[in-house]
Design a protein that fits this description.
This protein has helices at 48-55, 80-93, 106-117, 143-158, 165-174, 182-193, 196-207, 212-215, 235-244, 265-277, 281-288, 293-303, 308-315, 319-333, 338-347; strands at residues 7-10, 16-22, 27-31, 59-63, 99-104, 122-128, 222-227, 249-253. It has 357 residues and is of the alpha/beta class.
Length: 357
């Protein structure tokens, strides 16, 4: 498949999901928000920075959700649960056994639910401008449900129209520091991604999202980043994610843009943090090159899920010797646990997952 070529996979109910691949390196799936169109993404002021950053050093998988963009629009099951199952279908179709997830806005909620259901598949999780509670579920902020009702009414009336006040308000809400020509880009994205009726239906699903239970069972390394003055998703929602996900890192960014511009300092800060958090193939290979041949053997067996005794039996060495090799491996890879070591070797494309039963 050529980079950026759009293909389709079939989901659990026959719905066709449009997807595209770009770049090379460890696999990273960029979760879509409700407003995407694969054919326009690379020209969108919202999505272009993400695609540029993640296609450099990673094998980037991106897709349109059902009911939006180039995926099937008229579907019987348009629900949050179906969104999660579509990600399951795509991962299976592409034979992705171990990969990272990057979720923005409500795409973050889909990533959270998937990571909770399939902990062995998700190596790392990046959440930007994301939330676990849709506007109708934020009981500690009574004004949020009212904002939801107003936004739905405005979508039905002014969606995709450059001369309507809603389009200006919509663009300024998501990118208040955007230039004048950004409005045209946002309006074109609206028109391409969904009709007013489809957009309203997708928005209603977003407002009722609640994945708070899933937060407590996520075990993979997680980076939560959020714009300090985000008016689309308040920063308190990002802080809630960081508090509830065990061991999550929190990065507060000095911007008001829900989708940041490429030329603002906060975007460079985020890209640097993401690239440090999601090591590229080159970075992983550099770490792996420091391992001795015996340490590579130990790590390969460790990646298969074997314990020290089992590794010793396979290699004909004592359990104590295996333990010493494991500690040496931890130091060279810059990890502290077996789980982190397994993630590092699989991200580098080495080792094999445990046998399926």
């Amino acid at each position: 498949m050529h980079d950026h070529e759009v293909r389709f996979c079939e989901s659990f109910d026959g719905t066709r999901i449009a997807y595209s691949l770009s770049g090379s390196g460890p696999p990273v799936v960029l979760l879509p928000s409700w407003l995407t169109h694969l054919g326009f993404q690379r020209r969108s002021v919202a999505w272009k920075p993400w695609l540029t950053a993640l296609s450099a050093g990673y094998r980037l998988v991106r897709y349109d959700p059902r009911g939006c963009g180039m995926s099937d629009r008229q579907v019987a099951d348009l629900s949050f649960g179906a969104w999660v199952r579509d990600l399951e279908a795509l991962a299976s179709h592409l034979e992705l056994d171990h990969f990272s997830l990057v979720g923005t806005c409500q795409g973050g909620a889909v990533a959270i639910e998937y990571a909770a259901r399939y902990p062995s598949r998700v190596s790392r999780l990046v959440l930007f401008g994301a939330y676990a509670r849709g506007r109708n579920k934020r009981r500690d902020a009574p004004i949020e449900p009212e904002k939801a009702r107003v936004m739905l009414d405005m979508i039905r009336v002014g969606w995709g129209s450059e001369d309507h006040a809603f389009s200006m308000a919509f663009a300024q809400q998501f990118q208040p520091d955007g230039a004048a020509d950004h409005l045209q880009s946002w309006c074109e994205l609206q028109r391409r991604a969904a009709t007013p009726r489809e957009a309203a239906a997708l928005t209603e699903i977003m407002f009722d999202i609640d994945v708070q239970t899933a937060l407590r069972v996520i075990g993979c390394p997680t980076l939560v980043a959020h714009a300090r003055r985000d008016s689309v998703v308040p920063i308190e929602e990002g802080r809630l994610l960081a508090r509830q996900i065990h061991g999550a890192r929190f990065l507060e960014l000095d911007t008001a843009n829900h989708f940041m511009r490429e030329d603002e300092p906060a975007w460079s800060t985020l890209v640097d943090a993401v690239r440090e958090f999601l090591p590229t193939r080159e970075a992983n290979d550099a770490r792996m090159s420091e391992l001795s041949p015996r340490e590579r053997e130990v790590l390969d067996h460790l990646a298969r899920g074997l314990d020290n005794r089992e590794i010793g039996e396979r290699l004909g060495i004592s359990e104590k010797t295996v333990r010493n090799h494991v500690w040496s491996i931890f130091g060279k890879l810059g990890v502290r646990t077996r789980a982190q070591a397994i993630v590092a070797i699989r991200d580098a494309g080495h080792g094999k997952p445990p046998a399926k039963t």
